[in-house]
Amino acid sequence: MIWNETKECMSRDEMTNLQSARLRKLVDRVYHSVEYYRKKMQALGLEPGDIKGIEDLDKLPFTTKDDLRDTYPFGLFAVPNSQITRIHASSGTTGKATVVGYTRRDIETWSECVARCITMAGLGQNDIIQIAYGYGLFTGGLGAHYGAEKLGATVVPMSTGNTKKLINMMIDFGVTGIMCTPSYLLHIAETINEMGVRDKIKLKASINGAEPWTEKMRSQIENMLGIHAHDIYGLSEIMGPGVATDCQFHTGLHIHEDHFLPEIVDQKTLKPLRDGMTGELVISTLTKEGIPLIRYRTKDLTSITHKPCQCGRTTARIARFTGRTDDMLIIRGVNVFPSQIESALLEMGGTTPHYLLIVDRVNNLDTLEVRVEVEERFFSDEIRELENLTNKITEVIKQAIGLAVKVKLVEPKSIERSMGKSQHVIDNRKYN
Amino acid sequence: MFIKQLSVFIENRQGRLEEVTEALVQENVNILSLSMADTTEYGMLRMIVSNPETAKDALRDKGFSAMLTDVIAVKLQDKVGELHKMTHILCSQGLNIEYMYALASANRVAMIVKASDGEAAAKATMDGGLELYSYEDMCE
Ligand SMILES: [Zn+2]
Predict the structure, then answer these.
(1) What is the CATH number of the domain that holds A382?
(2) CB-hemisphere CA count at 13 Å for B60?
């Protein structure tokens, strides 16, 4: 099944024409309604009329997360607040969140894109779908929810937390589809096996995203549950989950090109790369009203192909992501920058103590251990004081990143320094 | 009135305690008493040593978090009721004992005590008829 054949199966020429027309409108719109963009374009001597089609895309300046931060909270919004119907936010590097706003039509577009993704996973209006992403400022829960409703499926808004309850409902309701992070689904699968209820599960397919995973994890999930697992890509700046998904052939993720114009650029030179070459994914939001982004640098590394797919869709496909161009970590679906933890530790007073982040995956759930060197100024001869210190550090980090971490006090100078600067992250999770 | 206790933070990993004792040997420091408080991840080594300043510097040079803490060393006789006498005095003054451990070295027998209020604890034990070892007593 294809949700929107008109858009997902158009010829390359039709798509190029549609994208060019939408790009012209987009550039015109941001030039006239967002001062920040206008100034950027004027600095380059660019006028909206200079962009005639997607062949002129590389004349336009890039947009980055820094631009969003500099204009916090609403500086890049292209419509008055009266037209914004929803706000989402994700954590930023300096503790300030990255804020995005959606108009009613943006929510409609988003739902449409997610509906296309769920259809790609072989689910439809007769299915019962559990959404086990967090609901709230994070785009995962509500994004998946609206898409599944748009599809006409029966939606069970589980959110995250109680795995046994989720499984019991899965059995009682006859749930056929689930949307959550891949690591959480593996955890669910293991719990199903422990409970010995594998034969009571009616699950057919899953749609998993918000964190990097591998083909190996996919086959593990598929074998453990006897389902088809699909990869969904998205980021809140662009929209949220639903920017791209893989079809039943699993040969890359179909990107909804009529809304999101993709480019792959060289990490260093920022020059566009040919199909098949790996570089940074850059997206222009062709139809977004609330906060349109031009050439937004996702910092995700991948490659792209424009060859039509066996499934009948002609939309470009991006390959499985190979990494990021920055030091962002994705832990249990939450974006974490080491610098956030660093500034939280700074709140402990004085200078930042030496620290090390150890990321691991235990029983398919991500764990983050923060090791902090016990310097003289923190030291006490009383265990109680050290325990208070541990609790205080745990609390400030939780405030900063929204995740519970395990804090471990270690001896001074026990964290290795390289080049006079300490290495801050060890990620023991295996993606390959 | 107070004596200096050497407190050292050590991670629960192999060989760390040995490194502490080795550093003390090199500086010719004698350990008169020692107690180890441990949690699942780290331990707190508390010691009364013959030369606390030297010992502290030597350990810091080796990268340990080490500090000196004021504690009292209450002289106790080897007979029934002596410890109770001390705890009774502290308790009746509303003083909490953060931790304590025994010292028996050469002819010295004492309870090393860190109380919630060191000054008050020292005064109370002396007023109650107990004797305290001095810093000099320990350095002999
Ligand atoms: Zn396909």
Answers:
(1) 3.30.300.30
(2) 14
